[in-house]
Amino acid sequence: MALLCPIILAPVRFAATFYTIRVTCNAVTSNLRFPATGDLDPLTDYFVSGDGDAVDLMTMLDATLTTHPQTSLGGWQVTYNADMRIVVTVSLLTMQLLWTHASTTLDQAVFGFADADTASAASATATNRASGMWRPARPPSEDSRDRQEIIAAVASTMDGHTRTARLVAPKKDRDIVFALLPQ
Fold first, then answer.
1. DSSP per residue over 100-164, as a string?
2. For a designed S-S bond to 25, which of 12, 17, 95, 131 qualifies (C-beta 3.0 to 4.6 A apart)?
3. For 73-98, what is the mean pLDDT?
4. CA distance 39 to 60
5. Which of 34, 106, 30 is nearest to 68 (CA)?
6. Helix (H) or strand (E) segment spanning residue 18
7. Is the pLDDT score of 1 beyond 60?
């Protein structure tokens, strides 16, 4: 089955093991550590996928925002909107992401935010799509799906018996071709 309208994610890598983001929530400002637990590995590929995997940056951002002291009054949620832009929402409170503050070391472009602080509100929507995300906005013209190359061999013994070996190659290839994409 071909993909209807795919989004292709490229990996994001970080140079440092952790970063800081300054957040104001319910008039209380805090410097939060990103990621909230553990460290980033400079050799690991991270993705802004929203699938909850260990290398999902949206899950890491959500966990970081949850460490804010005012979180007990309301919960955070990091999701995509219909246009595939990241939306940060806090329930029952107002918040502001201070991307331009000197103590913020996390690059806001990773999540698609402009180089400006967000307005103080219950939610903030990124101005752009997240880093490493490409959405062609049309289905592929060709999709080879997940195919494996099959390798087989036939041998004959001296007494005339035939032996067949069929090996499946471990490498999987998938070709996706888009025709007539807008520039």
1. TSTT--S-GGGGT--SSPPPSBSEEE-SSPPTTEE--SS--SEE--SEEEEEEEEEE-TTS-EEE
2. 95
3. 88
4. 11
5. 30
6. none
7. no
